[in-house]
Design a protein that fits this description.
The chain is mostly beta strands. The protein has a single domain (about 1-465), classed as YVTN repeat-like/Quinoprotein amine dehydrogenase (Methylamine Dehydrogenase, Chain H). It is about 5% helix and about 55% strand. The strands form 13 sheets. It has a 6-stranded antiparallel beta sheet, with no helix packed on it. A 4-stranded antiparallel beta sheet has the order 1-43-40-39, with no helix packed on it. The longest helix is centred in the first third of the chain and has 15 residues, at about 1-15.
Amino acid sequence: MKSKYLILLFIIPSLLNAQNYEWLNSFGHKGSDNIIGISTQSNGECVMAIYNSSSLVVNDTLYFDKYKFKINEFPNIINNIYLVRLDSNGKVLNAKGIGYAFIRSFCGDNYGNVYISCSFNIDDNRCKIDTLNLNKSNGKAVVAKFDKNFDLKWIVQTGNDTTSQIGVLKYCNNKLYFIGGSSDTTSIAYKTYYFKKVSTSLFGEINTQNGSILWSNYLHINSCQEILIYDMISLNNKLYFAGISPFNCNGAKINSDTILPGSGFIIMTDSLGIYIKNILFKSKYTNIRTISSDGKNIYVGGCFSDTVFWGAKKFSPFFKSGSNINEFFVAAVTYNLKPLWFYSPKVTKQLSNSYNINNIILKLTTSKGFIYIGGKFDNEIMIDSTIFSPKNVSSMLFLKMDSLNNVLWATSGNNSKGTIISIDANKENSVFVSGNFLDTVRCNSFFKLSKGSYDVFITKITDYSITRGKVSPGPYCAGDTILIPYSKF
């Protein structure tokens, strides 16, 4: 009996400190600053891609600790882009302005390199990466690689000069994939596509050594944006795409399968993008924005505003179906697209009569079999037995789940008008979280104020939580290992 008390005394402190904010940093100027993405490195460091709108404020300076940049260095240029490297303690090790463009995506590989995708600025059609002034006649979709010192290694342009863009870069299983879109006639490497006037989603793989496009493909030629792909992963030599078929279109036919309008989808293809099958979240509006995998199952996150029919089950939102008020969800499927579980927290109180409320999961990632989820929320919600209320208009939301649909902890950061944009985790149980905020952001005892409009924040969380599970009734002896159900935040 004595040994049983010793076990409990040892475990309780861990339950009360499931997550620990190690530090909080923020960057901004009097204008608006935004985070595109973060990438954790094998040595515990983290790289951020940030952009701002310099045309809003002149004669201002943006500081990344000791590194400083004059905002009006390029007058009337929007979307100045910066790469920033932080050590494991949040100290800035390096920062570099890498030009100006309409930046769209960012990711890193296993070797310290990072990749950006961008296109030409909408207002003036200018694009400069490193020291190179690009010409859109060579293709409006741009991808560039930088090494660990932020030196440019290669740059590639593709697509036509009017509508082409690469909106997502994804590094999975030592390969670099892209998701983009284009309309009319467009050339992607050695292939020419004859799309209609509406942008069609396309995708492919990029050679990380020289930037050449190894292959590209598409699933459906849009005439009304019937297929919108937002994210992808690779698993078991298959590709999985997540997105939506908008409700105001007619759906899409892929081989003999129909993608119903309003439904979210996960589509499986072979390694070259040839269609195999899909699973639909049948609804008048279900939007899947993010997808990840723990190597076994697949997890997606997004929002819905209408009853979801999924396999033999249905899930109804708190608000009246078709109200246009979005509620977020997380769901899991097997690698073969069989439904596992669907989770959405209960909305306990509506805080606005506006139909523009947008509860949405923006980012989801996995590490060591756990799921880390981030985004924002606008209504009062209940997660497990804890009530979360947004501060002012909206607040960021960050939570951890296990693969069995248990929420292990959640936090809102107590910030004003904040959103989590990017999450990345490394093998040392450290999770980096970054996003945008206006006014204030708080992570436990750490507190930051914005300098003007929206600023960028980043924090590191060391995660000590344990999974929940069924506890054996015993008997126990000294030295036995037991699994404790965990529900504290």
